[in-house]
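Internal tracking record. Fields below are filled automatically when a chain is submitted to the structure queue. Please do not edit lines marked as system-generated. If the sequence contains nonstandard residues, flag them in the REMARKS field before resubmitting.
Queue: standard
Priority: normal
Entity type: single polypeptide chain
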Amino acid sequence: MFSERTSVGLDVHARSVVAAALDTVTGEVVEARLSPDYREVLGWLAGLPGDVAVAYEAGPTGFGLYRAITQAQVRCVVAAPSKLQRPPGDRVKTDRRDALHLARLLRMDQIVAVTVPSVEQEAARDLVRAREDCRGDLMRARHRLSKLLLRHGLVYSGGAAWTGVHDRWLQQQRFDNAQTKATFDAYYDDLLSTTALRARLDTQIEALAADSEFTGVVRRLGCLRGVATLTAFGLAVEIGDWTRFTGNTIGAFVGLTPEVVKSNETSQAF
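SYSTEM-GENERATED OUTPUT FOLLOWS
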């Protein structure tokens, strides 16, 4: 329930913060364009009348501003962008209008807030996502190398690919053309460095999974068939607070619930 005198909406960008404050007693609207420096934002909030509540949309700027505002004993809500209500026919979107719209929604308690992770949870989540990015990079590195060899009629047939035996076969390849050799060396070096990076990230994740606030959840998830440490740890850090989900909603969150599109008597799941 909104109980503060002033509701504030912030449209946060990398290089600027557009702010709109709505005084619920006088109806006055105060607007400002601020730098993303937290001290400037907090100083502006301190000059507003009465108790203040703040809202801004979740986005690439993260949760640092939320933590700074909360530490200053000001209530802050990080809004889920996909859940923000807009009037029908509202086709004008500017930073100023977005900030004022957030302030009004906050005043009416019409904002669906996201769950803000702790600093430790966010760091663990970043580690898992870095490992996932590395996995994608490794797949692309393997693809580039194998397709280069295929164009030159070199196809490995000694068993499973990307094993120790396969690696020794790669090291035996020779090319007469200097440019082709340079290309192969570049692709092979990229493969080795990405593989080594993935191994380092795996080591860090396994160590964190064995001794952290996520250890209990990781061990319980590991009891499920097909769920190893990496999968369990990824679920633990991405979901965070498991109590905010039910058996039905968690399936939709992780992408296991199909979407149903139905028209008349026909339906199709995606």
